[in-house]
Design a protein that fits this description.
heterodimer, A: 537 residues, alpha/beta, 4-stranded mixed beta sheet, 3-stranded mixed beta sheet, 22 helices, B: 434 residues, Rossmann fold, 12 helices, 38% helix, 20% strand, flat, disordered N terminus, disordered C terminus
Chain lengths: 537, 434
């Protein structure tokens, strides 16, 4: 056992004696994070390439090598297509959330201009890669990367992310990798067409509203229907045909002026979480094309929903696999030491976790956390300690490949941490949990640290931190009467007294009202259904 | 599993670097369209700070970030309790308390969304075209390319194939050698044909015709010798690089800015003048590859100054225009003489000089200056009157009215909105004067 682990494991024992809480460890100096592969393993091949220059044929040879290793390690991926792009094209792509096709919208332009500016000023770097969840999987490689970096990116994106996209239950359930690009093309054409017909101001007004509500355009539990551009087109054409066949100016006049009565009954109303869906179907005054815009934003938001839930799991898996695959290359002699040193330097930049009290702390780094978790799964399978046998009896001494694949396929961030965060990882990252309590705002109180008493609690609290409700306040439509004043009542369930920020709440309500056209009220209720606060437009 | 992924391989690395750029140009344009007012204000400020020659360059623009917010529902961090887990514990054990860092903002939770929105200003870079579009926007700029001043040309020579004669310096060795080889091949072919004929004749001769035989043999020997001695190079092989005179637009231009900086020229007038000069500069820059700018300011005396002094150094005193015109001529004669310089003069003044001076100026302009320059534009910037009408034209205006020349034009500018129409009028294509 590693002396560090010993020190930490024995620490609680001393605490239990009831002696003065002596600080059980010295101030931490960092410890080597990246062990090199075992020297002396047999090399079976000459390096595929040395140096840092890359060419397209070279990348293809590396891809073949990576594919062989990935196949052996049972990585199941969508077909891959690499695209080499320039920095400007990378900025372009980043501005449209990585999608090569997207509808035009000013906010993307804002991203573009902002990023371009900071990049040119040298204030920020660019992503090394982008991979999107499509089939075939598109992996974008920056032309400025060196050869080791390109191979790192290939292993990371084309094999790690790609396998995650294909295997993880959320992506299987919620997204269709083969339909998204078609759908986005359809959406772009539809929106351009709307701009022609109704003017860009109108289109932009609706899109602004929809984008503000995009986090609430998601079915969180129900599996959405498949995305299909052709079916959408079909549906629109059908609607047009119907309108043509049944067009009667007199009836149309009546219809336009009639009080429309949606069928939703006011009495037994189930709370609706998908606000955009609700608006699309029931908003009293939206024109059909406006409903289509709402639908488009909603569908795209739904597509990205799993990505919001699997940051740690996804990045962790991809980082674990690039680490593993590149070491496979090294162990087979396909790359040399210089190659390893170069990518490891990039790798360690990516998985650095600054301490909370340092200046460059930006929250928990999903790469660091995810990578540690997956790597520890492998360690527990291969070299379990008595502690591991106690915490993970089903994992210790089993096949690590199978265990890692199971962890990739069946968990999101919250459950992954809940199930797999091991005491060793908590000790390595020196995780501790604090509470910011309503009763005393001047201090945070430390609740649990990485010791025997605290492991379970730290783990549980860290997992809770990744619940979507923590970042995106939950919202539901709770009442709507079609026959009465048509006011929309929204409800936010307050957790532990955390109210909504009044300023943004009012602004967002404004957007909802813009779509709904009648009164919108947002109430905040606690667990006992007591009304705590009301926002009105 | 591994088999299926291996068999579905299809390759795979596509080089997209050559793809046409600007896939997101449409989003960029939408952003600018949406925040046009803010950006325009920023552009105006920015241009006010710039030198004339820099007006046309792309630039960093910064607009207030308030309007750009895209609000999302958020928690109010001042209410309720929450937990968070942090990395890097050095010293804490359960039960410890940590003082809240200043400002009451939670430092720990970096997972909050939307923190990037809180910046005060949003800075970005506009390209040259976007900037010009916005700069000329309230000048109601139509397409600048469409207006033309009568095309300015000069003659130069251009390569035009090869010719048979020329000076030796222009000899093209490669082509000459090709011609020589061709000539030798052609001549050898003729000789070979003759030889064939003669040899056939010898074979057919009866043995008795000895005389004829020796005759033929002599002839053959002669032909063979000729074949061996074909000249390597002959006069007709020579080829020379040919040149041809072509009329091309002139590429060098100088723009002389004359401005009255006497006490009566206030900031508003200077700003109008600067806009006019900037416009002229942009216009010339599109026509010529290099445009030089000379600044001449005058009160009672004239001096050549740099741009900063020209626009920002206030002067006081009366106004005499004549010295400025004389200095202009001196500058032209010493530095920009010769036919390949295209000289443009733009003069801005409130025209407030003595009548005598004005008359002298008009005469000087007509006789001395106008023959030397391509175009002389005078803009008169009268003081704004509360009534909005102008009591009488200025002295300089009155006297300049007598100047009649196609290379001279003058207009009044009262307001920023006038500048572009005036500019267009001044530089509209002249139908009569080709």
């Amino acid at each position: 056992m590693n002396p560090w682990d010993l020190a930490d494991v024995t620490a609680p024992a001393r605490l239990r004696d009831g002696a003065a809480p002596e600080r059980p460890w010295p101030r931490l100096v960092s410890r080597p994070a990246v062990p090199m592969p075992v020297p002396g393993t047999r090399r079976t091949a000459e390096p595929i390439a040395v140096g840092s220059e890359w060419t397209v044929p070279l990348l293809e040879r590396f891809d073949v090598a990576l594919a062989a290793h990935a196949g052996r390690l049972q990585l199941d991926t969508y077909p891959i297509q690499y695209e080499v792009i320039t920095a400007a094209q990378m900025i372009d792509l980043c501005s449209t959330v990585g999608m090569p096709v997207h509808y035009p919208y000013w906010s993307f332009g804002k991203q573009l201009l902002g990023q371009e500016h900071t990049y040119k000023k040298g204030m920020s770097g660019l992503a090394y890669e982008i991979v999107i969840n499509t089939s075939p999987s598109l992996v974008y490689l920056m032309e400025t990367n060196t050869l080791p970096l390109q191979v790192l990116v290939m292993a990371h994106a084309a094999y790690g992310h790609n396998a995650f996209f294909k295997g993880n239950y959320l992506f299987r359930q919620f997204t269709q990798a083969d339909g998204i690009l078609d759908y986005l093309t359809f959406a772009r054409n539809f929106i351009l067409d709307c701009e022609q017909r109704h003017g860009w101001r109108e289109v932009e007004r609706i899109l602004d509203c929809c984008h503000a509500l995009a986090p609430y355009g998601v079915d969180r539990y129900k599996k959405p229907t498949r995305l299909s551009a052709s079916r959408e087109r079909e549906r629109l054409a059908e609607r047009l045909r119907f309108a043509q066949h049944h067009y009667n100016p007199d009836v149309a006049y009546l219809y336009e002026n009639a009080e429309v009565k949606p069928e939703a009954a006011a009495e037994s109303f189930d709370p609706q979480e998908n606000l955009l869906y609700f608006i699309e179907k029931l908003a009293p005054k939206l024109a059909p094309w406006q409903r289509e815009l709402v639908r488009i934003v909603r569908k795209i938001s739904q597509y990205f929903y799993p990505q919001r839930l699997t940051k740690v799991a996804n990045e962790g898996a991809a980082t674990f696999w690039h680490y593993t695959l590149l070491h496979e290359l090294y162990d087979h002699g396909q790359v040399d030491d210089g190659f390893m040193l170069e990518w490891l330097s990039n790798h360690s930049d990516v998985v650095t976790q600054p301490s909370f009290d340092t200046e460059n702390y930006r929250g928990i780094n999903p790469y660091a956390l995810g990578f540690s978790i997956y790597r520890d799964i492998r360690r527990i399978c291969e070299h379990p300690t008595p502690e591991d046998r106690e915490w993970f009896p089903r994992l210790a001494s089993t096949d690590w490949v199978e265990a890692v694949h199971f962890a990739m396929a069946n968990f999101k961030d919250e459950s992954l941490i809940e199930q797999y965060l091991s005491p060793k990882v908590m000790r390595d990252l020196r995780l501790f949990a604090i509470t910011d309590d309503e009763s005393d705002r001047s201090k945070y109180s430390v609740r649990a640290i990485h010791n025997e008493h605290g492991y379970a609690q730290v783990r549980q609290m860290l997992a809770a931190q990744y619940r979507p409700e923590v970042h995106t306040p939950a919202l539901a439509v709770t009442r709507f009467s079609a026959d009465g004043d048509r006011a929309l009542l929204l409800q936010h369930r307050v957790e532990r007294g955390r109210l909504l920020d009044a300023e943004t709440a009012t602004e967002v309500l404004g957007y909802i009202k813009e779509l709904w056209q009648f009164d919108v009220v947002l109430e905040e209720v606690d667990d006992g259904d007591n009304r705590l606060k009301i926002h009105r437009t | 599993m591994s088999d299926s992924s291996a068999s579905s391989r299809f390759m795979r690395v596509v080089d997209r670097r050559g793809d046409p750029p600007g896939r997101s140009a449409v989003n960029r344009e939408r952003f600018i369209r949406r925040f046009k007012d803010e950006i325009k204000r920023a552009v105006d400020d920015e241009i006010g700070k710039r030198g004339i020659a820099d007006v046309g360059k792309g630039s960093r623009i910064s607009i207030p970030g308030r309007g750009l917010k895209e609000p999302h529902l958020q928690h109010d961090h001042k209410t309720g309790s929450r937990d968070f887990v942090l990395p890097g514990n050095h010293e804490y054990i359960p039960g410890d308390t940590i003082d809240r860092p200043g400002g009451g903002e939670g430092d720990g939770d970096g997972n909050e969304p939307g923190q990037g929105e809180s910046r005060d200003n949003f800075a970005f870079v506009l390209s040259r075209d976007e900037l010009l579009q916005l700069f000329f926007d309230d000048l109601e700029l139509p397409n600048l390319e469409r207006t033309r001043i009568g095309d300015v040309t000069y003659i130069h020579t251009r390569r035009a194939g090869y010719s048979r004669d020329g000076v030796l310096a222009n000899l093209s060795p490669a082509l000459t050698m090709r011609m020589s080889i061709a000539r030798r091949i052609a001549l050898r072919g003729g000789i070979a044909r003759q030889l064939d004929e003669l040899e056939r004749e010898i074979e057919e001769l009866a043995p008795c015709e000895v005389e004829r035989r020796t005759e033929l043999e002599e002839e053959i020997a002669q032909l063979r010798a000729r074949r061996e001695q074909l000249p390597f190079l002959e006069e007709i092989d020579r080829r020379f690089r040919a040149r041809q005179p072509v009329a091309a637009p002139a590429t060098r231009a100088v723009m002389l800015c004359l401005m009255d900086v006497s006490g009566s020229m206030d900031e508003r007038k200077k700003d109008l003048a600067k806009r006019f000069f900037a416009l002229l500069y942009l216009f010339l820059e599109r026509k010529y590859s290099a445009v030089e700018v000379v600044f001449i300011r005058h009160t009672e005396t004239a001096q050549e100054v740099d741009e900063k002094t020209f626009f920002h150094d206030p002067q006081s005193g009366g106004t005499l225009v004549m010295p400025a015109l004389q200095l202009t001529q001196k500058v032209i004669d010493t530095r920009f003489a010769g036919p390949d310089w295209n000289i443009y003069v733009a003069q801005a003044s409130d025209g407030d000089c003595g009548e005598e001076d004005a008359q002298r100026c008009a005469g000087y302009l007509q006789t001395e200056l106008l023959p030397r320059v391509r175009y002389f534009a005078y803009i008169d910037i009268p003081s704004s009157n509360p009534g909005g009408w102008f009591s009488r034209p200025s002295d300089l205006w009155q006297c300049y009215e007598s100047v009649a020349d196609s290379g001279f034009a003058m207009r009044k500018v009262h307001d920023r909105r006038d500048i572009w129409p005036v500019f267009r009028e001044l530089f509209a294509r002249k139908e009569a004067t080709a």
